[in-house]
Specification:
Layout: E1 10-15, H1 24-38, E2 42-47, E3 59-62, H2 80-83, H3 86-96, H4 102-114, E4 123-127, H5 132-138, E5 143-146, H6 151-160, H7 165-174, H8 178-187, E6 191-193, H9 196-206, E7 213-215, E8 237-240, H10 251-262, E9 268-271, H11 280-288, E10 294-296, H12 302-311, E11 314-317, H13 326-333, E12 338-341, H14 346-350, E13 355-357, H15 362-374, H16 376-393, H17 396-414
Parallel strand pairs: 1-2, 1-4, 2-3, 4-5, 5-6, 6-7, 8-9, 8-11, 9-10, 11-12, 12-13
Helix pairs in contact: 1-17, 3-4, 4-5, 6-7, 10-11, 10-15, 13-16
């Protein structure tokens, strides 16, 4: 294999939906672009809505889309002029028939944008769009993709979470883009993923040989997440950072655990975010009669987020599955004792610096909460061990350096030096 000269690279990052406040993909693109830039590389980002809120010195092209998932105008009806454009029509038709066509259409838009600009870049890096447009790009320029975890897991849990045949069908239809992502990912020369567990699951679900993967763990932004030792932790105060109704995130099981704990100890649950109006989470809180024990923060600033971590006596990450588990790393970076599950890659992130319980097990979560409540020395030791683990293992600088190694390997194989 020819070696690629160690020169700064011209990198194009593609990310179709990168909300920096919700979901790992937005966090990934914001922090990876920053770290690559800090290593001296030229970085351009192509993104769809919402605005990923990149740092000011990161170049970004915001691709215009129909943005039918905009919460301020959800599932609006496009104008006739908009639908005259073939990509717009295909996106609208897919969503109108209960599918999720955004990855498909965004990849096509990215190809149209780049087709006369390929000579500007050394490498294109797709952030789990995996559209046929990404495959077309890969035929013109060295291209890699990050897959955070296989969407087949989300589909399986979503289908299992409902009993109605019609609702099961709706979930299957919505996740129909997975077939495209499988086909495209098999044609790319290299896949980056964020944990060994994700590599094994993606390899099995998408039928990709393991030797096509590079495992590059995410970093944790320790400029945003850090201890505030001057703020005392409040006994019995628990923080969880996901308010979604999504079955995958496991909040239902934590709420049941809180109800169990409340019969034996004083407890308060702080949920970062806002629940879905009249959704399953709100209904369960009413059923369990624990509304007085649960507070939703709504959207808060990064500074407020860190203060919430500082006041918490522990953080619980009850996910049934995570391809990496940023909330575990972020809590540990704040020196908060963590309880999490064996779901997916969570044990890889937590190591021996957290209480680890089976997923979907409210009793096990409740027992772990009480153990930490009753053993403040162990809770403090876990918090300190978690902080050390993040500092030693999960930095974005390290992640960016390893991603660049993958870039250079793919460029060398492609013959572009």
């Amino acid at each position: 294999m020819n070696s690629v000269p160690e020169r700064p690279l011209k990198i194009c990052l593609i990310s179709y939906r990168s909300n920096p406040h919700c979901g790992g993909q937005g966090v990934y693109i914001r922090n990876l672009s920053r770290a690559l830039k800090d290593l001296g590389h030229d970085v351009d980002v192509i993104a769809g809505p919402p605005d990923p809120l990149l740092h000011d010195d990161i170049s970004i092209t915001k691709i215009t889309t129909l943005d039918l998932y905009n919460p301020n105008d959800l599932f609006r009806t496009p104008s006739f002029e908009e639908l005259k454009q073939p990509i717009n029509f295909m996106e609208w038709l897919g969503i109108s028939t209960m599918g999720y066509s955004e990855p498909f259409s965004f990849g096509l838009r990215a190809y149209v944008h780049l087709r006369d600009k390929f000579d500007k870049y050394d490498i294109v890096h797709d952030n789990q769009c995996l559209s046929y447009g990404i495959w077309a790009i890969s035929r013109r320029i060295p291209t890699v993709a990050t897959i955070h975890h296989p969407m087949t897991v989300d589909r399986k849990l979503a289908v299992q979470s409902v009993s109605s045949i019609w609702k099961k069908f709706k979930h299957i239809r919505w996740y129909s883009f997975i077939g495209m992502q499988k086909r495209v990912s098999r044609r790319l020369p290299k896949i980056i993923t964020v944990s060994e567990f994700s590599r094994d699951d993606i390899s099995r679900a998408y039928r990709i040989p393991k030797n096509k993967f590079d495992v590059v763990p995410n970093g944790i932004n320790t400029e945003l997440f850090y201890p505030l030792p001057h703020i005392p932790r409040e006994p019995g105060r628990i923080i969880v950072t996901n308010s979604a109704d999504t079955a995958l995130k496991g909040l239902y099981y934590l709420l049941q655990a809180v109800e169990m704990v409340s019969k034996k100890r004083k407890v308060k649950l702080i949920v970062i975010g806002t629940p879905k109006k009249d959704g399953g989470i709100v209904k369960l809180i009413k059923t369990l009669k624990i509304a007085h024990l649960v507070r939703f923060t709504g959207r808060i600033s990064n500074e407020e987020f860190v203060r919430e971590y500082a006041k918490a006596s522990m953080a619980v990450v009850p996910s049934l599955y995570e391809g990496f588990g940023l909330p575990v790393g972020e809590a540990m970076a704040c020196a908060v004792p963590v309880i999490t599950t064996t779901g997916g890659a969570l044990p890889e992130v937590a190591g021996d610096a957290a209480e680890i319980v089976p997923p979907a097990d409210p009793e096990a979560i409740a027992d772990a909460i009480i153990r930490l409540m009753d053993d403040p020395k162990r809770a403090k030791a876990l918090g300190e061990a978690g902080y050390r683990r993040v500092i030693e293992n999960f930095t974005w600088k390290k992640a960016a350096e390893n991603v660049v190694k993958t870039y250079r390997e793919v460029m060398s194989d492609y013959g572009r030096v």
